[in-house]
Amino acid sequence: MAIHHDPVAEALRQHLGVCGDLLLLAQAEAEALRQPGPYPAARIQAERKDLLVRLDSSSRLVASQRNRSGQLNAPDCDTPPELADLVRTTLDTIMRVLVVGRENEQSLLRRGLVPARSLPRAEQSRPNFVALTYQRHAQG
Fold it and tell me: What pTM was computed for the model?
């Protein structure tokens, strides 16, 4: 089954594009944090806000298309391999964004750009926290 005109695949491709842009921003932030000069906080924050709006929109689109089509909802459904690869690539990209973001957070803290009270709760630094959160939301 070709997934070129599949609405779920199109929504996932759009979401993957946004996730890729988030990864590029996180990597640019990491590069800025490695430089000895001043950190461009305002520019990065503005880009992050714009991307978060796009991320919210694309994730809602994926959810609505998934619910409409019934694909990816049940573990026993026959998901086309191309669609499964697209989901896997998207999840891998999301995990890379989270890892780079966490490293950036640590760099910001070391440079004194983030007050300690602004750090996330301890459970968010557990490696399986995100997976458990997704599982809880999938079940509920």
Answer: 0.73
The residue ranges of the chain whose pLDDT is under 70 are 1-4, 70-77, 115-127, 129-130, 140
CB-count exposure of residue 12 (10 Å: 0-12, 13-18, 19+): buried
Segment 24-28 long-range contacts (CB within 8 Å, at least 24 positions apart): 25/51, 26/97, 26/100, 26/101, 26/104, 27/100
Radius of gyration of the chain (CA): 17
Domain boundaries, the chain: 7-139
Tell me how far the alpha carbon of residue 100 is from its chain's centroid: 11
- C-alpha 113/C-alpha 107 separation (Å) is 9
Angle at 129 between CA 55 and CA 136, to 5 degrees: 80
